[in-house]
Each structure stands twice: as structure tokens, then as C-alpha cells.
Amino acid sequence: MKAQDFGRIAAQKARQIIMQKLRGAERDVIYEEYRHRVNEIISGTVKRRGRGADLIVDLGKVEAILPARNYPKTERYHNGERVLALLLEVQDTENGGAEVILTRSHPAFVSRLFTQEVPEVEDGTVTINNIVRDPGYRTKVIVKSSDTKVDPVGACVGMRGSRIKNIIRELNNEKIDIIPF
Q1: Which string of b and e fits 71-106 if b means at least 16 CB within 10 Å?
Q2: Strand pairing class (41-49; 82-92)
Q3: Predicted pLDDT of residue 73
Q4: pLDDT value of residue 20
Q5: Which pLDDT score is estimated for 97?
Q6: pLDDT for residue 62
Q7: How many whole angstroms separate alpha carbon 75 and alpha carbon 99?
Q8: Distance CA 147, CA 117 (A)
Q9: What is the DSSP string of 110-142?
Q10: Can you say whether residue 156 is alpha, beta or left, with left for phi > 0 and alpha for psi between -120 and 50 degrees?
């Protein structure tokens, strides 16, 4: 039997099945690629507004969602703007796709920024014991040093505040208090 011999209903059914299999394969690819990158900082471009104040962020191969509850109310984004965010989770949707969820208000975002900016935090000399945030306004970070010769607060601040300035700039001038444990 040739493809031309199928009726309209049979052709439509075959099309639906093929599309369903494609969506399933696409979801698996997205899930596998981003599943192991949870709690990593990812850079993307704001593509458009979703439902309400949710943002759709283009990560290159896939679009991610930055829900309104996951970024500070003080921040405003425009189409085409670069945004740095923490990959919070990858979850399955009810229509068979995979969703990549981002956040900028989670305390782990600040922790990852410190890890990126402060070498002592990355190598484990200085540890972040706790982070408390009021996203968009202030953050309190409690730090501890495993080496008595290293000042944990000084290591996080850097020479003339160079390290902390980069973090504050990324958080849109949010106040950061660094407290020794």
C-alpha cells in the first residue's frame, strides 16, 4: 500500500503519531542536556514575556522560563537583554515536553555568584554557612574560614571591594552584608 492510497483520517493520524514521537524525543534531549546542570549559573537572552510577568529566556538550543516569583520585583527586563540566572530545575510538562526553570531570587544564586567570583570559596578555604535574602533589597551571607590565616570577610570583599562589587552589580545594587561565623 502506498502513501497516496491512505485516506484523509489515516494520514492525519499518522501525522499526529509522528509529531508525538518527535516531541518525546525533543523532551528527552532537553532533559538529558540540562538535568546534570541543575544549580549552575546559565546565561541567556530575554526572548519575550510569557503568562503574566513570566519571562521566556533563550538559552541557545532551548527556551527556559523565569517565573515572576523567581526574580526580584525591582528588576525589569526588556526583549534582547542578557540575563544571568540559576538553573533551578528541569521538569516534565503535562503536554509531553520538558521545561527548564530558572531563578534569580533563590539564595543558591548568590552562593553560585560567590563561588564564581571568590577563589577561596571555590577551593573550600572559605565556606558559606548560610544565606538569607530579601530579593532585590538585601542579602546576608554568613562565612567561615577553615584556615586561620584567611579572613573570610576580607576574602569575599576583595581588594578595595573588587570581588563584592561584581556580585552587587549582577544583583542590581542589592545590599550585601558579609558576617563572620
Answers
A1: beeebebeeeeebbbbbbebeeeeeeebbbbbbbbb
A2: antiparallel
A3: 87
A4: 85
A5: 66
A6: 82
A7: 23
A8: 19
A9: HHHHHHHH-HHHHHTSEEEEEEEEETTTEEEEE
A10: alpha
CA angle 56/31/128 to nearest 5° reads 75
What type of residue is 129? N
Cell matching residue 29: 534531549
Residue 132 has phi, psi (to 5 degrees) of -125, 130
pLDDT of residue 167: 93
Distance CA 72, CA 139 (A): 12
- What DSSP character marks residue 151? -
User: What pLDDT shows up at residue 1?
Assistant: 64
Closest CA to 65 of 107, 104, 108, 99: 99
Neighbour count for residue 14 (Cβ, 10 Å): 12
What is the mean pLDDT, run by run of 10 residues, along the chain of 181 residues? 74 88 78 82 90 86 87 88 91 74 93 92 92 93 92 92 92 93 89
